[in-house]
Amino acid sequence: MSHERLKPWRTEERQSGPYPERAERDPNLADRALMAWGEVTARSLGHRRRMLEKFCDRVDAAEPEVQPLSDERLKDAAQALRPLFLRHGLRDDLLVRCFALAREGSRRVLGKRHYRVQLMGGRALVEGWLAEMATGEGKTITAGPPAIAAALAGLPVHVVTVNDYLAERDAEIVRPLYELFGLTVGICRHGQKPDERRKAYEADITYGANKEIAFDYLRDRIALGHRRDRAGRAVQAMLRDRFAQPLLLRGLGFAIVDEADSVLVDEARTPLIISAEVEGDDEAATYALALEVASRLTEGQHYERLPARRLIRLTEAGKARVEEDTRLRGGLWGIRRAREELAEQALSALHLFLRGQQYVVAEGKVQIVDEYTGRIAEGRTWERGLHQLIEQKEGVELTGRRETLARITYQRFFRRYLRLSGMTGTGWELAGELRAVYGLPIARIPTNKPSRRQDLGAKLFADMASKWDAVAEAARRVSATGRPVLIGTKSVEASEALSERLAARGLAHTVLNARFDKEEAEIVARAGERGRITVATNMAGRGTDIHLGEGVEELGGLHVIVAEYHDSPRIDRQLIGRGARQGNPGSFEAIVCLQDELFAKFGGGRLGHVARAVPGGGVALLRRVAQWRAEAMNAATRRQTLRSDTETRKQLGFAGAPE
C-alpha cells in the first residue's frame, strides 16, 4: 500500500485519548462540494475497477502456492503476516498473500471459494471504499479477507450490520474462517451486560448492529467525562487503568458497514441520544389534558397537517383556542411556547403516529417500529413528551420524561473511524453525498453471473380495497404454479390487512413483521419452499437470503410483489433483490394504489390522475416524481442534522461542555 494510502492510519491523524480514533474534522461546504463533484467524475473513469481487476489477477496467481499447505501451515502463514503488516502497513503484496490464504481457508472450512467479484469487493473495503455489490452476491463472506487483514495488522475490526439478527447470523457463518487463522470473534447484542459487551469488543473482529456500537461509544464518552481538551484526554488515558471506569471499546479502527446506504444515509436523519429519566409533577394529568384539548381542535381551522415532514402546526385560531381551553390550568399551560408545543405534540400523537404503523403495543409498552428495518427499535423513545403522549393515548403505564446525557450523529460517529468502508447493493445514486460527508468513494462491483430477474411491470389502483384484492389474486395465481411468493408491505398494519384478505380466500400464508420477530429465522428459512406465500414488512428486505426449495428453480424461482413503494427506490430494490439471486430465475411486479402513503404525501392528486390515464409508463412516472420529492426532503433533513450537529459541537467545545 502506498504511503498516501497509509496516511489515515498514521499517528498524526489520530485523536489523542484512551483508544485510537480519527481526529475531528468538519469539512466546509466548498470541500464537500468538491469531493462530491470529484466522486461523480471519478465514477465515469473506471480506474477503480481496473485496479481491483489487477489485484484479483495477482491473487489468482498466488493461489497455487497456498493450496498445498496444511491447515496448520495455512494458519502459520497468516500469522507470519502480522509483523509485516505492522511494519509496512496494508501493502498490496501482503494483501495479495492474505487474500489468497483467506480464499483457500474459506474453501476448506466454509465450502465456499471466493469468486473474483468477492475479492474485488474485499479489496475495495481495505482501500476505504464503498463496494456496491448486487443483492445476493455474497457480501457476508466478502467481508472475511479484509477483516482478517486488518485484524492481523492489529486494528480493532467492527463489522457493522443493521440489526442483531444479521450480526449474529453473519458472525456465525464466517467464524470458522476467522478461527482457522487464530483470530477471535465477538458479537455485540442488545441486552448484554457491560462485561459481556467488553468481552465482545476485546475480540479481534466484532460483529454488531450500528446502534449498539454507536451507543457503546457514547457510553465510553460518558465514562470519560467527555474531556475535549488534549491535556484532559492525556491525563485520563494515563489514569485509566487505575481510576477510570473500564471502557467498552478498544477503539475505532476499521469499520466494514454492511448495508451502508441504510446505516450512513437513511438512518442519519436522527441523532443517537443517551438519556436518563427525570422526575416530574403529575405528568399523567398534563398529558391527559393535552390529548383532551387536541381532540377538540379541527383540522384546517385550528391546525394544519404537514404529513411529508410528519409535523402538525397550530394556526393562529388554534393557538387562541388552546389558550382559552387551558386559561385556568397554570404550570406549563401558562407559558405560551410550552403550551403550544404540548398541543402540537398531542395532535401528532393523535393523527400522525398510528398503532401498527409507527409503533406497536406489546407487553404493556409502546414499542417503536424502525421504518427502515421493520423491526422493534429496542430501547428507543420519542422526544419532547411525544412518547408519553402516545402512551397516554394507548392507556399503558407512562415512562418518565428523559433528560439527554450524550448525543452524537451517525455522520460524526462513523467519521471517527481510522478507516471506514462499506458494502451495499444500492448506493450508486448516493455517491456524491457519501463522498462529501464520509469521504467514501464508490466502487461498482460486477455480478458473478448475469441476472435472470424478470420485471413484470406495475399496476396502479384507485383505492386500497382494489389493490389488496389484486395482490391476493396475484399471489393465488403464482403460488398455484408451485412458485413461492414474497409480498412486501410497508407497515405492520398493512401486512395484517393483507393477511385477512388471503385468509378470506383460503390461501395459506405466513406473516413476518415486528410482532413475530422471534420466528424470523424459521419464516425466512421456509419462504422459498414450493407454493409458499409470505407476507413481510421491511424485515424481509436487507440481508435476508431466501433459499429456493427443491424443484422451485425449474418452476421459475421466487416471485416478489411490491405492495407499496417506499420513500426511497433503494428500499424497493432491496426487496426485489430477495429473488433471482446469484443467477437464479425470479420475477417481480408492483401492485400499488393512489392512497398509498408515498403518493398521498408526494404524488399530488392531479399527477396521480394523469398517471392513471397514461398507459404503460404512468405508474413509473408517478413513482419517480414522488420518490424524487421524498428523497430530496430527506436529503435536506440530513444536511440540516449535520449543520446543527456542527454548530452544537462548536458551541459545546467553546464552553468545554459534554458531547
Structure description:
It is built from 28 helices and 19 strands. The chain has 659 residues and is α/β, with parallel strands linked by helices. The chain folds into three domains: 19-272 and 409-444, 3-Layer(aba) Sandwich (Rossmann fold), CATH 3.40.50.300; 281-399, SecA, preprotein cross-linking domain (Pre-protein croslinking domain of SecA); 452-593, 3-Layer(aba) Sandwich (Rossmann fold). The strands form five sheets. It has a seven-stranded parallel β-sheet with strand order 3-4-2-5-12-1-13. Strands 14-19-18-15-17-16 form a six-stranded parallel β-sheet, with helices on both faces. Helix 11 links the parallel strand 3 (185-188) and strand 4. The chain is globular and about 85 Å long. It starts with a helix and ends with a helix. The model is unreliable at 1-12, 227-233, 238-243 and 654-658 (pLDDT under 50).
Question: Which secondary-structure class do the elements indicate?
Answer: alpha/beta
Share of helix among residues? 40-55%
CATH C-level of the largest domain: Alpha Beta
- Rounded to an integer in angstroms, the radius of gyration calculated over CA atoms is 26 Å
Domains, number: 3
**CATH A-level architecture of the largest domain:** 3-Layer(aba) Sandwich
- CATH superfamily caption of the largest domain: P-loop containing nucleotide triphosphate hydrolases
Strand order of the largest sheet: 3-4-2-5-12-1-13
CATH topology of the largest domain: Rossmann fold
DSSP E strands, number: 19
Average residue-wise pLDDT:
85
Shape: globular
